[in-house]
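Good morning C.,

I know you're traveling, so I'll keep this short. The sequence:
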Amino acid sequence: MVFLANDRRERSAVAALAGARILPNGYDLAAFAFIAAAGYLTLHGVGEMRAPLEGLSTTPLSLDPAYLPEYALRTTLRMMAAIVASLIFTFVVATLAAKSRRAEKIIIPALDILQSVPVLGFLTFTVTFFMGLFPGSQLGAECASIFAIFTSQAWNMAFSFYQSLRTVPRDLDEVSRSFGLSSWQRFWRLEAPFAAPGLVWNTMMSMSGGWFFVVASEAITVGNTTVQLPGLGSWLALAIDKQDFVAVGWAVLVMGIVILLYDQLLFRPIVAWADKFRFEQTAGQQKPRSWVYSLIRRTRLLKNVTAPFAAVWGRLFLLRLLPASRAVAKGRDERRVVSRVIDYAWFALIAAIGAWSIWDIVSYLSQTLSWGDVSIAFAGGFVTLLRVVVLIAVASVIWVPLGVWIGLRPAVAERVQPIAQFLAAFPANVLFPVAVIAIVATGANPDIWLSPLMVLGTQWYILFNVIAGASAFPTDLREASSVYRLRSWTWWRRAILPGIFPYYVTGALTASGGSWNASIVAELASWGNTKLEAFGLGSYIAKATEAGDFPRVILGIVVMSVFVTLFNRTLWRPLYVFAERRLRLD
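The tokens, ready to paste straight into the viewer:
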């Protein structure tokens, strides 16, 4: 509120302030109210995370709906912390893989292996580590939970950013080099903006995909260690254990509200902001909208407060931290020889480390396991591989056409976005009771009918990436295809499929890796005391983890990593190379 003075000079001063757009307006008040509420909730949640560890046993989880807002806040904070860590990881690791040929030889296979390592596999070894870092505090268990959620988010985002950096149009790259931009400037002025639309959609997918494993990350059981952190995931685990359908319904309702809130308050504004980074040579016909983004743009005081930080941020991007690369003819042959020698030494070092790791693992496993255990694990791996291939093929046939249709219509994408996020975030664990009851009642084969549960949470990687690719499809190419009257299969083969192919490969790769991970919870389903098991590598790891059998856990993880790495190297990696060389927007 502004109190106007009687003095005419003071009135003119107030008028001058208003004319200078310094005084806050109604949009400022709304924005600061949101910021204050978010700050208060964050501080409250962080304070609860640092509570003594004994509080988890003295105040056990309750299925009273009055606790759901607190549980939802705790889960949301964990997922936000994990997504921030995933973004930092993506910008550092994916950029290094895209820029350094030697680093790529390690990082990409490592990502292939890490995305295949199940969340339960990480929890098996990280719970003790983090709880040892913060003895007597819930912060150790919180860090273990956040790290588990991070492992379900980071790989998808890293692959997306890596793919975008590798497919930057050559003409734009040549223009940036001709202007003498350094590597740092070229990254922030060209490469990161070009990758922004795909990264935004994959960040949404990763945020939603984290919900799929929120039960395993909050209700942690490894051997004799059991930790139940307050959250929606542990609520679901308790409700499923007690066969309480009402409590499961409450959890789904609150989860939908949380997803709607962060869609409206976070992701939709980011999608509207990132639209300006689309690769276009003509003006787009429709733009995504966000009432929060419009509200922020209409503020006065908030803009003035953040202007100095924005100026510093912009100046940081203009720094020439790394010199512009210039080709020098003199000594080029000598540099090639030196580079080749370094490559050989680097590959020899990688091979030596890999051989030592394999020898160490084999020595450890041979003390307690036999070749019969290895054959069982590999047999389960082949069965799970068959499930993954069939499910990814079916999901591609369904979601690629729908994703293209949604992505080419921003108005439809705006309405579908929260629905798709909710479906992607919907934990398959909620459907396990229905699946278990139906299979038991009908006498169906669990080896077949538990399989679809593997793809329920991972098929959305394909949908979100196809939507991102179709949304980023240049308007001028769409107009050209209309001018040349490309129709039906010709339009799909000549226009849209090549345009979305790099995005589809990223989505299918992460969906297949996520399906392997999801097999841990899908091949061993339970409802109360009723348990169903489908033969496969996922159920093998799940049973070993529950029993605290670390040698078999390690064997299952190693076998799964071998299968995923070979599958990616045989199929997805060649498709990546094809997309990079033949399907760039040049």
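Safe travels,
E.
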